[in-house]
């Protein structure tokens, strides 16, 4: 279905796997990538062995010593060229993302656009890696802080955003002077191959050392090697909370640094002063976009009792209009889940809802028949629940939207929203200024992202992305997230002929 796109992206061989630069190798077992769209084999890759990994790290160490000496604006120029190459390959890469992961083609294109946007951001950043000048308490002393690259940055990414999250980390890390080693999800390996190929082409054209950007393939054992490795200064891991806890334990034990982007359990609060038209579009896209497989997916809708029935009716009507099917067909809103294990998690969640006393008002189920042969297509579900249900407290990576009624003022709704373990994204729908400001205040949302009159998903790269509590506390992408990829150094220069001590301490002899 996407042979032309694979050829355009340079994926014409089945011998991909481990890579430093544009050199491909791998001694591990072969594993296959099947599309959830139609169940067909897309391609095969070689898993990385311990020996492959060691080779990659050694080359990354050598590359770092050279790469860090290139002035930051010149590193930014490399990223500018990478962004231009992504513009050329946008349609092909977007289609591969859609076909291998299962999200709509429009969302696939949007993901590649995120890559392009972060390239633009990183190019500007390459001339803005600012430190601060600090006034010293000692005469004829100058004090300032500055930032230096860390070294090797390990990136462990998830299947749901198979290219954008890597780019968020890679573009910032490279501009900061680091080198990267990427372990992508084994569920979307060919997207990773395509990205590595595109960047390697740019690096080779500029005669940049092999090892600035490397790829290691395989299961969690490869991720464990990255987490355990003292030579990897920073591990940026995206995935489940359970996975993040394990990564954090291992990296913290060696006093390494982490950026953790973990689970979400995101809510939209709908108050009596909400614009229900805006609410409807935001909630439906937030709940069913990417078939509910975003960390920022809208999981819970917390609705005031006075408008609850009206909101419920509008949602049920909207869900009747959702079209499911091949995500490469622009007429369809929802594609498949990533694999049959995800389908099993979805069906188990529906059983749990019923066991705990929830009421399913838009029925789910696995779709069968023509166009659904992969067995990965499921119906989006709406259920009436209580926030304390065990199933509601968990993140189910599927298109299941929970409706929760609240009474009283917006403070009660905020309390419900915050009463989960995760703290990624949140939103309030209101035209009431006081409600909006309370939601954004220290008494409001406890999430890393808090929006007013837009949904929980669809973050722009200009702001720092990440969340609190079991979401991990990490920040990626915009704002000053770049500082996580660098080490901070405070410098004091004495240009006097005396040695005055801080705090007025005397030490004469």
Architecture overview:
By secondary structure, the chain is an alpha/beta fold. It folds into two domains: 3-262 and 472-490, Aldehyde Dehydrogenase, Chain A, domain 1, CATH 3.40.605; 266-452, Aldehyde Dehydrogenase, Chain A, domain 2 (3-Layer(aba) Sandwich). The chain is built from 14 helices and 23 strands. The strands form six sheets. It has a seven-stranded mixed beta sheet, sandwiched between helices. Strands 14-15-16-13-12-18-19 form a seven-stranded mixed beta sheet, sandwiched between helices. Helix 9 links the parallel strand 12 and strand 13 (298-304). Helix 3 runs antiparallel to helix 4 and helix 3 packs antiparallel against helix 6 (189-205). The longest helix has 30 residues, at 72-101. It is globular. The termini are far apart. The mean pLDDT is 96. This is aldehyde dehydrogenase (NAD(+)). InterPro entries: Ald_DH/histidinol_DH, Ald_DH_C, Ald_DH_CS_GLU, Ald_DH_N, Aldehyde_DH_dom, ALDH7A1-like. Homotetramer. Pfam families: Aldedh. Belongs to the aldehyde dehydrogenase family.
Q: What labels would you give this structure?
A:
Aldehyde Dehydrogenase, Chain A, domain 1; NAD; aldehyde dehydrogenase (NAD(+)); alpha/beta; 2 domains; 7-stranded mixed sheet; oxidoreductase; 509 residues; globular; Ald_DH/histidinol_DH; EC 1.2.1.3
Short description:
Belongs to the aldehyde dehydrogenase family. The protein is α/β, with parallel strands linked by helices and 509 residues long. Helices cover 37% and strands 21% of the residues.
């Amino acid at each position: 279905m996407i042979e032309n796109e694979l050829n355009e992206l340079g994926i014409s061989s089945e011998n991909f796997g481990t890579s430093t630069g544009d050199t491909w190798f791998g001694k591990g077992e072969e594993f296959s990538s099947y599309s959830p769209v139609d169940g067909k084999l897309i391609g095969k890759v070689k898993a990385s062995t311990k020996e492959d990994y060691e080779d990659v790290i050694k080359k990354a160490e050598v590359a770092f010593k050279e790469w860090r000496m290139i002035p930051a604006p010149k590193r930014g120029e490399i990223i500018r060229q990478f962004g231009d190459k992504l513009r050329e390959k946008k349609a092909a890469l977007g289609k591969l993302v859609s076909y291998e992961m299962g999200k709509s083609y429009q969302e696939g294109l949007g993901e590649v656009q995120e890559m392009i946007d972060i390239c633009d951001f990183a190019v500007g950043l390459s001339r803005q890696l600012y430190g601060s000048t600090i006034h010293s308490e000692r005469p004829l002393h100058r004090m300032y802080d500055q930032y230096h690259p860390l070294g090797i940055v390990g990136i462990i990414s998830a299947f749901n955003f198979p290219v954008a999250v890597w780019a968020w980390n890679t573009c910032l890390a490279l501009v900061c002077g680091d080198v990267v080693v990427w372990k992508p999800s084994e569920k979307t390996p060919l997207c990773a191959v395509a990205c590595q190929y595109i960047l390697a082409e740019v690096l080779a054209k500029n005669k940049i050392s092999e090892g600035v950007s490397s790829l290691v393939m395989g299961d969690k054992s490869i991720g464990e090697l990255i987490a355990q490795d003292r030579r990897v200064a920073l591990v940026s891991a995206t995935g489940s909370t359970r996975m993040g806890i394990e990564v954090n334990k291992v990296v913290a034990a060696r006093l390494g640094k982490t950026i953790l982007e973990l689970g979400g359990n995101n809510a939209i609060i709908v108050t009596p002063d909400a614009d229900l038209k805006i609410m409807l579009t935001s909630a439906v896209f937030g709940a069913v976009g990417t078939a509910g497989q975003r960390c920022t997916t809208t999981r819970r809708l917390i609705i005031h009792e006075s408008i609850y029935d009206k909101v419920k009716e509008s949602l049920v009507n909207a869900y009747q209009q959702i079209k499911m099917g091949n995500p490469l067909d622009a007429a369809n809103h929802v594609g498949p889940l990533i694999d049959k294990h995800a389908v099993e998690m979805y069906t188990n969640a529906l059983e749990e809802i019923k066991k705990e006393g929830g009421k399913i008002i838009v029925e789910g189920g696995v779709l069968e028949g023509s166009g659904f042969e992969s067995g990965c297509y499921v119906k989006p579900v709406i259920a009436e629940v209580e926030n304390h249900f065990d199933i509601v407290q968990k993140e189910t990576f599927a298109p299941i939207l929970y409706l929760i009624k609240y009474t009283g003022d917006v403070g009660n709704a905020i309390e419900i929203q915050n009463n989960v373990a995760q703290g990624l994204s949140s939103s309030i729908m209101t035209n009431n200024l006081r409600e909006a400001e309370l939601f954004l205040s220290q008494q409001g949302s406890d999430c890393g992202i808090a929006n007013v009159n837009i949904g929980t998903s669809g973050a722009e790269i200009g702001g720092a992305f990440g969340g609190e509590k079991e979401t991990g506390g990490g920040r990626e992408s915009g704002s000053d997230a770049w500082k996580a990829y660098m080490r901070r150094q405070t410098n004091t220069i004495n240009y006097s002929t005396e040695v005055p001590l801080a705090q007025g301490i005397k030490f004469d002899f």
